[in-house]
Design goal:
Number of strands: 0
Structural class: mainly alpha
CATH class: Mainly Alpha
CATH topology: de novo design (two linked rop proteins)
Number of helices: 5
CATH architecture: Up-down Bundle
Order of helices and strands: HHHHH
Number of domains: 1
Distance between the termini: 88 Å
Length: 188
């Protein structure tokens, strides 16, 4: 009978540890899926913006055909955005895209006829809406990454989660925060 109490205590500890490991693993899987979903949302919005860019270029090109360097920069930034693999590449591409869009809108400001064009105004409105969605998606992604990274780093999780295949994820950070402080807008 003396051995029964220590056996019950050991079994109870094993069960408690097992439940803790099971709950921790499941919560990490959930957070990982949430981060993947959030990254997918970002890529969808980046693709949407990239699809708007050729139409925007064509609308501006009709009025400012001599601004070849601006159009080339926007096209290059669009390609870079579409080829981005992961948050670090996407952040760099985001900086280049923001600079390129600012330059194309600067060109557009010089042409009152373009500013009055219904097609250009609609494209601009869709682009601003897409930029807002990108920012919202980025915040959701970074929130998920924060939760996942915190769960991985806290004790005692830090002792075993890497062995289960969970690693910290990169935040979607922009190297020039001023470049994305607000969506590109044109003042008419």
């Amino acid at each position: 009978m003396e051995w029964l109490i220590p056996l019950i205590i050991v079994v109870a500890l094993v069960v408690i540890i097992g439940i803790y490991l099971w709950a921790t693993y499941n919560s990490l899987v959930t957070l990982n899926v949430r981060v993947d979903e959030a990254w997918s949302d970002i890529t969808v919005q980046l693709k949407r913006r990239a699809d708007l860019i050729p139409n925007l270029i064509e609308a501006v090109k009709g009025y400012a055909a001599h601004e070849k360097a601006v159009f080339e920069n926007v096209t290059r930034a669009r390609a870079e955005t579409l080829q981005a693999q992961g948050p670090a590449d996407a952040s760099a591409a985001e900086n280049h895209m923001q600079q390129a869009l600012k330059s194309i809108f600067a060109v557009a400001e010089a042409y009152p006829q373009l500013q009055a064009s219904q097609n250009f105004l609609q494209l601009q409105s869709e682009l601003v809406d897409t930029e807002d969605k990108i920012q919202a998606s980025r915040r959701f992604y970074n929130g998920g990454v924060r939760e996942l990274n915190t769960k991985i780093k806290v004790f005692p999780n830090t002792l075993f989660v890497r062995g289960l295949g969970f690693n910290e994820r990169d935040f979607f950070e922009v190297t020039e925060p001023a470049a994305i402080a607000e969506p590109p807008r044109v003042q008419f």
